[in-house]
Amino acid sequence: MAEQPLIQVDGLWKRYGLPLLPAVKRSFKRIQGKNPDEATTLPWSLQRIQFESYAGETLGIAGLNGSGKSTLLKVLAGVTPPTRGRVTVSGPLFPMIELNAGIHMELTGRENIYLLGAVLGLTRQEINARMPEIEAFCELGEWLDRPVRMYSSGMMVRLGFGTGIHVSADILLMDEVMAVGDLSFYNKCLAHLENLRERGKCTLFVSHNIRRMRRMCDRVLVLNQGEQVFIGPTEEAMTIYEDLVRKRSGQNMGQGGQFDFIGAALESIAFEQSGENELVIPQGGDATLAFTLRLDKPIGACHLNIALESLDSVDVVVKTLEIEGAEAGLYRFEVAWQNLMMKPDMYGVRLGINMGHTSGKGFRARNAARLIIEGEHGLAGLYNPTGEITMAPLEQADGAAS
Q: What keywords sit in the KW lines (predicted)?
């Protein structure tokens, strides 16, 4: 890495101001010689942030929702100023902190490429020279000459990312934008980000996806409630971040992420082995979960899904029950898992009822229970079925020349 950082953050604090009406009321109280209510002071969005990022480095930014990740990127991009401290950016910067950041919705995709390039100091001739590469990367075809307001979210990501990596920015800020794209485009983005790193570009990348962080980042900055808790090697940072996720999952167990559109409610849930909604088992152990659902009105044909989710919300095991229909009333369900050869970790139980093809209209209860797998760490996969790898020399085929 280069000796001089491209980004230097020194003692950064950020707090957003009060809305207009409360601020005016506080001012009048001061004029009247009264002390304004200090309880109306908003908390700090960021405090005591200190780090540097260098050319050729991909720095990840991890943290729970509300920890200040997006605010940090906005300060770095100059969208909002710091309240205290200093931010020094040395070189052209391209922010991809929102899907439509820097994109004019009434212009065509091609016109936006010229606009974004001009903002970064490129001449029209320089943009023309790079246009074939941008077109090929975006894969928008004739849509490139249509207004961006007609684009889907995935198409806007293609336009923004395709432009950002082909202009002459030394620094790229990314806020989870690739999560919208399809798998093939995501893999293409990863390949180009690796190329940018080899060319000495600096990338700051915000994500909740632990595996994506491990794959992309050289170092990771971990934020919690606006404070910097760690910056350093990716693996160590991910361990700290996973601990934060586990603590949050424990605090929210049984009360997070529920929605209902069919008149259903989760009445009770417990593992047979523990009698509670939490169970600890060894790797390869069995677990049986029983729960009661209340239906306030009849439902038609549907699917009941029971999933074990990883910390980053990946379905590891899913069981599905087809239901032809049910009248209003109480129903008991039981699911049994055998030989759970899963990576030692904490897993949340998600219950869901999907009505036909309308996946958004049904019932869901996330984090309804918690299963903890204990065992040997270091396994590469989330699920490791029993089996073995054998090795044997190949004998020379009959009739082969000696």
A: ATP-binding, Nucleotide-binding, Transport
Give the architecture-level CATH label for domain 7-249: 3-Layer(aba) Sandwich (3.40)
Give the dihedral of Cα atoms 171, 174, 178, 180; nearest 10 deg. Answer: -140
How far apart CA 124 and CA 138 sit, in angstroms, is: 19
Question: Whole-angstrom Cα distance, residue 20 to residue 117?
Answer: 36
258-374 maps to CATH 2.70.50.60: yes
Sort strands 171-175 and 93-96 into parallel, antiparallel or unpaired: parallel
- CA–CA gap between residue 210 and residue 67 (Å, rounded): 16
| Model confidence at 24: pLDDT above 60 | yes
**pLDDT over 50 at 39, yes or no:** no
Q: How confident is the model over 347-383, as pLDDT tens digits?
A: 989 999 988 655 557 898 888 898 988 876 555 677 7
DSSP label at residue 168: -
Strand partners, 333: 291
Q: If you search the block for the tokens 């198409």, which residue do you land on?
A: 155
